[in-house]
Design a protein that fits this description.
Elements (H helix, E strand, L loop, with lengths): L8 H17 L10 H20 L4 H27 L5 H24 L2
Helix pairs in contact: 1-2, 1-4, 2-3, 3-4
InterPro entries: 23S_rRNA-intervening_sequence (IPR012657), 23S_rRNA_IVS_sf (IPR036583)
Protein name: Four helix bundle protein
């Protein structure tokens, strides 16, 4: 692996979540394509993108700043999950599965931020 971020388990987990959110949103109603579908996918993709962007050739404070963006994108995905379940687009089982992944990513990003102090 040529890039530092490719070795990070949190980046790999964020990629997995982005794939899962992409699959999930394919089941949403067509009238959500430019609204919740787009927002959920962009937020999920943003997690791994910010981890990658911040990790390469950046100082620790700069990397921490990008990890903060990734953390906020992760929380945005959680909010999208809440909207999706309230609108009956997903089941409780799907909600819990992705919510758990978001919790794990939150813990991993937080630990990585602490390790950079």
């Amino acid at each position: 692996m040529a890039f530092k971020f490719e070795k990070l388990k949190v980046w790999q987990k964020a990629l997995d979540l982005a794939d899962e959110i992409d699959k999930m949103t394919k089941t949403f109603p067509k009238d959500e394509v430019y609204v919740l579908t787009s927002q959920a996918k962009r937020a999920a993709d943003s997690i791994s993108m910010n981890i990658a962007e911040g990790s390469t050739g950046q100082s620790n404070p700069e990397f921490k700043r990008f990890l903060g963006y990734a953390l906020r994108s992760n929380i945005e995905v959680v909010n999208c999950l809440h909207l999706a379940i309230r609108r009956n687009y997903i089941t409780e089982e799907i909600f819990q599965k992705h919510y758990k992944s978001c919790e794990e990513i939150l813990v991993m990003i937080s630990a990585l931020i602490k390790s950079l102090n």
